[in-house]
């Protein structure tokens, strides 16, 4: 039979894991300020492509 100390320890581990998951979720979805006093839109990843894409090899540009 499992002792009460083991059950308490397992509950503590599960509680700490749940708190960590909540904090990670809050950090991922909270808008972070880009400039002091201003908030950025909420997003996980902001994708930016290069300004000028070179033509692939073998293509003729006019």
Task: Outline the structure in words.
The protein has a domain at 1-29. The chain is built from 1 helix and no strands. The chain has one helix at 4-29. The N and C termini lie far apart (80 Å). The model has no long low-confidence stretch (mean pLDDT 78). Residues 53-62 have a biased composition (Pro residues). Residues 40-62 are annotated as: Disordered.
Number of strands: 0
Q: What structural category do the secondary elements indicate?
A: mainly alpha
Order of helices and strands: H
The global form is elongated
Percent range for β-strand residues? under 5%
So how many helices? 1
- N- and C-termini, Cα separation: 80 Å
Uncertain segments are: none
Query: Percent range for helical residues?
Result: 40-55%
Outline the biggest β-sheet. none
User: What is the alpha-carbon Rg in Å?
Assistant: 24 Å
The average pLDDT is 78
Brief write-up:
Residues 53-62 have a biased composition (Pro residues). By secondary structure, this protein is mainly alpha-helical. The protein has one helix at residues 4-29.
Features:
mainly alpha; 42% helix; 0% strand; elongated
Give the SSE map.
Layout lengths: L3 H26 L33
């Amino acid at each position: 039979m499992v002792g009460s100390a083991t059950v308490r320890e397992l509950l503590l581990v599960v509680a700490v894991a749940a708190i960590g998951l909540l904090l990670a979720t809050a950090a991922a979805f909270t808008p972070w300020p880009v400039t002091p006093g201003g908030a950025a839109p909420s997003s996980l990843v902001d994708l930016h492509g290069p300004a000028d894409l070179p033509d692939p090899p073998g293509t003729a540009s006019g």
